[in-house]
Amino acid sequence: MSTLFQDFVKGIWKENPVLVLVLGTCPTLAVTSSARNGISMGLATTLVLLGSNLVISLIRKLVPGKIRIPVYIVVIATFVTVVDLLMQAYAPQELYLALGIFIPLIVVNCIVLGRAEAFASKHGPLRSMLDGVGMGLGFTLTLTMVGMAREFLSSGSLFEVKVLTCWKVDFLLPAQAPGAFIIVGCLLAAMNAWNRHRAVKRGELYVPPAGLDCRHCRICAPAPEEAVAESAEEK
Amino acid sequence: MKKWQETENVWALGLFLAAVGFLAALVLALISQLTAGPIREAAARQANEALRQVLPAFDNQPSEDRVTVKLEDGREVIFYRARRGGELVGVAAEGEVPGYAGPVRGLVGFDPDGTVRTMLILKQQETPGLGANVCSRQEKKTIFTLFSGAPKREGLPPNPVLDQFSGRRSDGTPWRVTKDGGDAVYITGATVTSRAVTQLAYELAEAFRTRQQEVSK
Fold first, then answer.
1. Nearest chain A alpha carbon to B142
2. What predicted TM-score, i.e. pTM, was given to this entire model?
3. What tens digit of pLDDT does each residue of A153-192 get?
4. Tell me: the pLDDT tens digits for A175-184?
């Protein structure tokens, strides 16, 4: 039971896809100019993650290892197209226009393929679904946070509601790409600082979660033992 | 025989991929069939919503009752005719001009005599916070209106740049922003977008004036 719960919550904080795994940075920077865009993009990605993780975990024993990546991509692309069609039909039109090209681009979001390869291809459907939803929610929360920060710093409003009514002239930096980089960078730094603070308090050496960075990704890299050895040497 | 998962037989791999692709295509065909109707409805609702905002009350289907004309430089202007009881009560013109970052697409509603009623921007990619403000007609919500309820308003939320064309008629001299010697106000820092919007309003008004015969049938 506790592992099921862990599968779900780890995506929200301990293995947050944006702040810890640093995956899916493109949508994080591009669509978060307002809190509403952030939350919608996050939810769309969550839906794709849930579907693709479920299907990939169901077919994981059928797929020959040699062609697993193309098969995963087909599955993911299918779900993304479904989400795209559904949004076109049922989401508010201006929201669909605002997210625009970034909905089809969920296909190439590293989080989705990353979870398929790192989790769904090794675990059962239930755990994979929980992992997908947890990761998706972590992504959604981070995107909403970045969106809120950018929206508030640029015009003093949250979710298109002016909170500081005396704020008349928009401040452009946070609403544009450079501001996105600065804010995401601050969040990453804060996350690292917090984790280090915790580790130091426990009297341990802070080590980023193993097996979660690029060096440990097995999609195109050597076997995991070598990679771990490499990173140990570096330290 | 080797385990299926470790097979390296190109034909088997190819067939498997083809099968996966085929299944995916089937699923997508099904979903696309199911959503085709709602997507069309959403697009039509969007189009009609914009037309209702710039035209007086009508009882026909302006999005069906339209003429497309070509300007001298090849760009297209679409006219939508609004009728009530068979009589023409207004015309909306839709056109496009280059803005600061890509095309700015707008819709202008006219009275039958060519007077501008309202202007609306349908599509733009201008700078958020500057050019986008010139184009947006979004209701300004604050924490105070959130609790007390927004004041009831007739028609569209105001926009100083777009609203200034209401009541104007084209007489053949181009409208310009004050910076270029005209009388149209513009927003500092968003001159290019303001210019584009002014040019769009003028071009549509002028297109309507010169083709009134043809359009007001």
1. A162
2. 0.77
3. 988 888 878 888 777 777 888 888 899 999 998 988 888 8
4. 888 999 999 9
Domain that holds residue A115: 2-201
Q: Give residue limits of the domains in chain B.
A: 6-50, 55-215
- A79 in a structural domain: yes
Count of domains forming chain A: 1
**List of chain B residues whose C-beta atoms are within 8 Å of the C-beta of residue A160:** 138, 141
CB-nearest to A160 from B20, B32, B141 is B141
pLDDT digits (tens, 9 = 90+) for A71-110: 999 999 999 999 999 998 888 877 887 787 788 889 888 8
Residues of B in contact with A170 (CB under 8 A): 128-130, 133
Nearest to B128 among A75, A85, A176 (CB): A176
A168 contacts chain B (CB < 8 A): no
- Beta-bridged to residue B84, according to DSSP, are B87
